[in-house]
Amino acid sequence: MRCQQLSTPRRRHHRKMPPSTQVDALSTPTRAPDGSETAANAAEGAPARRQPPPESNESMWTRRAVIFSFWAVVVFLGLPVWWKTTAIYRADLPLQAMTDWADGKICKPVFPLRIAVEASALQSPDAQHLIRTTQHALDDLNEFSAHHLRLMLADSPWTANLSQQVVSDGLRISGKDEDIALTIRLVPVETGTTPRSHLQQYAPTLDVYYAANQIPPASSTSSPLATFIAHELHKMFAEEQAQLAYLLSTTSSAHSAKIKSLSPETAAELERQSTRALKYAPTYHLTFSLFSPTFVPSAWEIESALQQYLAPLLESFSSISNFTVDSQVQLYAGFSPSIRQPEYDETLNAWTLRKEDLSGFINAAEWPLSPSIGIGPTVNFVLYVPDQSQSPLLVKENGGNSWLIPQWGGVLILNPAQAANTANTPTTLTREALAPAMHTFANQLLSLLGLPQTPNSLPLRLSTLKRVRAASLLFSASSTLGALARLTRALPSIPIPDKVAISVDFTTDHLQQACNNLREGRFQGALEHARIAEAEAEKAFFERSMVGQVYFPDEHKAAVYLPLMGPVAVPLLMAALKEFKGLSARRRG
Amino acid sequence: MPIDQQKALLFGAAAAVRLLLFTAFPSLPNLLTGRVEISTPVTSFKRLQEGVFLYTHNVSPYDGGVFHQAPLLLPLFSLLPNPAYYPFATNLLYTIVDLLGANALMHIAESGQSATPRLFKSSRKELRWSSIAIGAGFLFNPFTITTCIARPTSALTNLFILLAMAKASQGAGSTFVLALSVASYLAMHPILLFPPLLVLCYDVRATKSKSAPNPLAFTAFHVLSLVVALGGLLYLSALLTGSWEFLGATYGVRLLLPDLTPNVGLWWYFFTEMFDSFREFFLGVFWLHVVSYVPGLTIRLRKQPLFVAVTLTGIFAVFTPYPSIADGTLYLSLVPLFRHLFPLMRYTFLASSTILYASFIGPAFYYLWIYAGSGNANFFYAITLVWSLGLSVIVGDSLYAALRDELDVERPELRGKEVKRI
């Protein structure tokens, strides 16, 4: 039957042959016809014996139904399953907003500092006038527009409802209102050089002493007192301005154009400071270790020493970071064999270590100083008490006994025998003996945390650090968002779970709040929001399930699908094709 | 000897063998219960004991993720005395389950639906074994006996599948639907037997009543009763456990294969190797593969619905996620119903030798892998491949034989001649 069907087109073809061939065929009539012609003839001759009877209608429909049923399963169940299970879920991310954050288009951080002026001895119009002139002088001095100081009268109507009560009692208002960065107290004096100023070390208060005749008259636009205050303030906040400017210039190219260029020396100094300081963390872990190459001292009154010398400092830091503390004593801990042994120096009358060996002083292989305990980074403070035979031990070049290891901690060599003028090393280090060590450690900790050097008032330095940290967290979280947006655009094959989208929303939300807080001068709130934003941004960026598919190129998918799908697909496709062919042939024939 | 007497003798002997094995080798049941070839995570008797323990202590039996079996088994087994101390009641229950299964199988054989369904008379229909022989083939099959001794719940599933087939071949529509819904409730995949068995039931009903019932109404009625019966069972389970969480722990486990304990099937090894991101896709593919046989075979072999149902049990024994030899034994016991196809089968020797080979080497290779440590997972996997190959050869060969048988009826002049696919 198949041959019969084939023979029909063959004949048609024969008829369409070019004339020359026909002539040829006619000229040689004895030539045998081609094979198919013979076969067709044979088939026509004995169809019953060689060919099966035509397929019955019923079996044909059964076959079609069977093929259709398999295809129905594939199309109606298989394709949805395939679509559903291999689709890469990509949650919608606000990519444009994220990029804008990273480019600094949404938030331009500004640092308006409020400075309250207490002038109880002055009449209100006089005081107002003084503030106005000082503000003018200050604005003339300021070169960094994002960071500006705004003076206000402590008992002005603007803050009256807040502070009237307190001021009349003769107390400072700044203790109550955290948003006031500094309080200037104007004190009239009769003696001494005027104007002169005194910055209180443990309160954000600047006392300015002036003579009564230095109050600017209402007609003048400048006065020595106003200029003096403006210069004092400018000097006090110079380092903070430099730090913020440095931060803006290094973290974000968008800002660098607008800020004043820093002098190379200042930039180098700031870079030194920032490489020394640890990365910001909400919690730090402090480890205090006592190492001794012999069996003494075997005890130290570390707990009460920490309580007395360090706890107040850590307490004052609590608005920026928290601290956990532990301590350990390690006896028979020799220092690293890789450095030269101490040499005796006749002139110093002491054993000395070379400066270049200090970096290898920590015996990382044997001293149990684990890199990190708990969540936060660890800051190590090592107290080394040398062997009596090598005591006192000092640094050769400068006779010092302590040094700081950037981003790691501090080391101090304690020579107790020398300090106490006794021959033997005491078995227990008392709290008093630890006092110099604790003071050094406290200073080292301040450097490691990135606290600025000036001004000489701890609350002011802390609030500076708060602003610097808030700004750096803001930049870091923004740039993480930008990186995540770039990653999302660059790799269309990675899945993005809802968790990431939620984290991103959370981050932008907190960034916005941090930015608003900065603008309004609420730096504590800004720091808290920026901290949350940073944590969420990191969480979104380092989401584990996103990276699983990164190294899975499309060629691998063929290797996954083909071995199983191939054998299934071939018979399915062939059956369908054959059926279609048969259908079209029947329609034509 | 009258047929009843023969039957009594057969059942007595089968029960005696089982009870004797239970009592003579008291450690045998526990040994067999631990075998992966017999006990899968979804049928294991040990896990059932765990579930019963939790259930009797008023803890949700699905807490802890060990128990994956249907909740209604719990009250049944908590009624029995603790099998650790009084195993006799449990042993008796499983013996009775086997005898009832054999009884159902004999009913199927007696119905004659295997060789002479309504629309088709096999040309070799005189070639058949007696129901006693077929029952004996089931009861004394070593696979059936080991399954009975190991006491997995798949023995119950087998019983209800056999009951459903028996009732369908007797035309008892409601009992057929009830039995099938219990089987599906216990093991989920038997629901795929519904289309061919419904066709069988329809054919038998049509033969008996002389006027064929309306196919649409018949289908609608039975689908509806299946839904009602299954819904009732599930609702009862929810009442019993107090929540619907059993759905995920039972059918969810069968669908999604979280437990990759080795078994005689093909899924576990494949899914240990699969990339995680394609796991869901291939779960879908594997399940659809099983499902796709149902409509195709039912349409192609419309005239022999019982054969379709039996072939499907063979496919389940190979391609479901948690098969055990209990599924294999069900298929192997049903194949003798089609004695008339045996002369047309071409690979009986190959099939029987692969099955035997796998049954002897399988435990040895498992021992080498797990206990001796001198083999690895591929040893056991290779044997499960051989076992599946053996079963698929029987499935494929019997399918060929059934089609050839149809051709012989259609064109009697070709009988005994070589045929070729065109």
Automatic annotation (TrEMBL), chain A:
It is a multi-pass membrane protein. The chain crosses the membrane at residues 65-83. It comes from the Eukaryota. Keywords: Endoplasmic reticulum, Glycoprotein, GPI-anchor biosynthesis, Membrane, Transmembrane, Transmembrane helix. Pfam families: PIG-S. One of its GO terms (biological process) is GPI anchor biosynthetic process. Residues 19-30 have a biased composition (Polar residues). The keyword Transferase does not apply. The keyword Aminoacyl-tRNA synthetase does not apply. Pathway: Glycolipid biosynthesis; glycosylphosphatidylinositol-anchor biosynthesis. InterPro entries: PtdIno-glycan_biosynth_class_S. Residues 39-48 have a biased composition (Low complexity). Belongs to the PIGS family. This is GPI transamidase component PIG-S. It comes from Clohesyomyces aquaticus.
UniProtKB/TrEMBL annotation, chain B:
GO terms for biological process: attachment of GPI anchor to protein; GPI anchor biosynthetic process. It is a multi-pass membrane protein. Keywords: Endoplasmic reticulum, GPI-anchor biosynthesis, Membrane, Transmembrane, Transmembrane helix. It is found in: Endoplasmic reticulum membrane. One of its GO terms (cellular component) is GPI-anchor transamidase complex. The chain crosses the membrane at residues 7-25, 84-106, 127-143, 178-198, 218-239, 281-299, 306-325, 345-367, 379-403. Its main location: endoplasmic reticulum. Pathway: Glycolipid biosynthesis; glycosylphosphatidylinositol-anchor biosynthesis. Pfam families: PIG-U. Coiled coil: none annotated. Belongs to the PIGU family. This is GPI transamidase subunit PIG-U. It comes from Clohesyomyces aquaticus. The lineage of its organism: Eukaryota, Fungi, Dikarya, Ascomycota, Pezizomycotina.
